[in-house]
Amino acid sequence: MNIFRKVDVRKLGMICIVGMASAVMAACGAKDGSENNLIVVESEQKQTVNLFSPMEKTEADVENVARSAADKTIMLAEEKLGVSVGYVTYTAEDYQDKTYDDVTLDRARNDMDDLYLLNPDTLRTLAEEGKLRDLSGLDCVKNLRDVVKAANVVDGKLVAIPQEVVAYGLFVNKDMFDKYGLALPETPEEFLECCRVFKENGIETPVGANRWWLETFVLAQAYADLYNGGNTEAEIAALNSGDSKYSDYMRPGFEFLQEMIDKEYVDADKALVSEAIEGEGEDFLSQKSPIVMAYWGAANTETAYGKTDFEMQVIGFPSRRGQMPVMPMTGFGVGINAEHGEDAMAVLDIMLSDEALQIYAETNRVISPSKNVEVECVDSLKPLNDRIQENVYVLGSNAGMDVEQWGNTCLIVRDLLGGATVDECMAEFDWLQEEALRKNR
User: Which of 13, 101, 123, 325 minimizes the number of CB atoms within 10 Å of its CB?
Assistant: First the structure.
């Protein structure tokens, strides 16, 4: 049964990556004093493992495929282990409300659940606070892609593992590009030229945006060379030591976004208060905006962009190295003081086994964290998938960097949308780096 509980909700504005394995659309909850969407789903059997995760918003009578895929892996674990998994979920309402991340931090710090589905910034925070178990001893770890392990190791401990590798790209209306004789852009300069042509031909807002995902443009441009130039470890070491500055990497991407704002290629005011897909999705589907940014799974589900009246293609973000996928890492973690910790570890080991990940990947048609699991992607995703299969991508989150990337970049991009200058934004990165250096002295 479903039980709706009231919680004390403050109107906070922290970051939530809307692109998770089982619930990409969840970000916030309910306003002060109102009933929210914190839901407990109890099993008919005795509950022995509690899982906290977001629940994807869906339209009436549309199947939640992501939730269905996760359910199948959980049921497999329940059957093999003879345990029961109970769900606690929290869903976004609007941009003013408390985020899923805020609620996760509260619950994990108070040991309220056993398993948590974590965004990258929350994952890092809880790991640094010692609130997550080391998962490196699980049997499933030996099958993980190296990129998954590298992105989720904090202080030498593997603290989270995803059920899918979330990849972000540009969703483009290929018909509109063809109409104006435009090739799909590879570089920032080519992208801006496409926007200019669209604008001159009466497209009021060429790029549909929301308050969460514009950082993908910045990250693609900032780290295209770092992750694809053959010197990744040394460059990250220089950032962590202070020999290099994060702001130097970030500046070109922020200047690019500022130009988009100045030329009204993106509606900054609307983006600042728009939830993911809900803010820009309608204009994209109605062909008012030819470009949006979204996660891989949005191309597979009718709750997002899985059914369009035009040819859609998903490509990488513009960078000096061409179209660049951006891959932040979410993951499941186990609380250090989990009441049912051993059962939770066993459940996670089954959920992340090759057997379960094959079921998950085939249901959702996503990139698996296991190097042994491959599924055919839909045609629209093939341009993005080709780059990933070539090992060309940028990590949107990397626990090896002393300054957390995904959440901090998103928040500072929101400052830019709100009127901050590029120099003021760079000063924020410098401050974050100084704080990290101070902490590690």
Answer: 13
Output the six-digit token pair for 365.
């048609």
391, exposed or middle or buried, with CB in 10 Å at 0-12, 13-18, 19+?
Answer: exposed
**Tokens coding 210:** 């929301």
Q: Rounded to an integer, what distance in angstroms lies between the CA atom of residue 397 and that of residue 282?
A: 29
Taking each helix axis from N to C end, the angle separating 65-81 and 341-351, rounded to the nearest 10 degrees, works out to 120
The residues facing 315 across adjacent strands are: 170
Average pLDDT over residues 277-302: 89
Higher-pLDDT residue of 6, 157: 157
pTM score? 0.77
Can you spell out the DSSP letters for 359-395? HHHHHHT---SBTT---PPPGGGHHHHHHHHTT--EE
How many Cα atoms sit within 13 Å of 298 on the Cβ side? 28
| Side chain identity, residue 106 | D
- Which amino acid, 357? L
* pLDDT recorded at residue 89: 85
Contact present, 217 and 256 (Cβ < 8 Å): yes
Across 347-376, average pLDDT: 91
Query: Quick count: other Cβ atoms within 10 Å of Cβ 123?
Result: 31
d(CA 150, CA 393): 14
Classify residue 228 as left (phi > 0), alpha (psi -120 to 50) or beta.
Answer: alpha
CA distance linking residue 54 with residue 38, whole number of Å: 9
Specify which residues 293 forms β-bridges with. 170
Q: Copy the structure tokens of residue 84.
A: 């029961």
User: What is the rounded distance in angstroms from the CA atom of residue 408 to the CA atom of residue 391?
Assistant: 25
State the amino acid at position 181 in one-letter form: G
Query: Which tokens sit at 59?
Result: 């339209």
191 in Cβ contact with 318 (< 8 Å): yes
The mean pLDDT value for 10-30 works out to 32
* Residue 440 exposure: Cα atoms within 13 Å on the Cβ side: 15
Mean pLDDT calculated for residue range 292-312: 88
Angle between helices 215-228 and 406-417 (to 10 degrees): 140
Angstrom distance (rounded) from CA 280 to CA 282: 6
In 242-366, which ranges are continuous DSSP H helix? Answer: 246-262, 268-272, 281-285, 341-351, 354-364
